[in-house]
Design a protein that fits this description.
- The chain is α/β, with parallel strands linked by helices.
- The chain has a domain of 52 residues.
- 25% of the residues lie in helices and 12% in strands.
- A 3-stranded parallel β-sheet has the order 1-2-3, sandwiched between helices.
- Helix 2 links the parallel strand 1 and strand 2.
- The chain is globular and about 35 Å long.
- The two termini are 17 Å apart.
């Protein structure tokens, strides 16, 4: 059963923090990964077959790179795609 928080979050630059919790590459139990950096975040997930939503705020083109499971413009769209109201 999927669950989510009713509180939506914004980009680190909008909340004044760039902390990643848990630490990068920590063992976590999420079933989908949501991130904005293609090379640092999305590509490794695709390589490891982890379901991933790319928050592509700047309209980057894939240009030969593999497509993520979904692409959205912001975290609110990602939450909506996952069924958050």
């Amino acid at each position: 059963m999927a669950s989510w928080s009713s509180a939506l979050t914004e980009a680190p630059s909008e909340i004044g923090s760039s902390d990643t919790l848990p630490a990068r590459w920590a063992v976590i139990s999420f079933s989908i990964f949501i991130a904005s950096g293609y090379d640092a975040d999305i590509a490794p997930c695709i390589k490891r077959k982890v379901p991933v939503i790319w928050v592509n705020r700047h309209g980057e083109k894939l240009e030969g790179r593999k497509a993520p499971d979904a692409t959205v413009k912001n975290f609110r769209e990602a939450a909506a795609k996952l069924g958050a109201k």
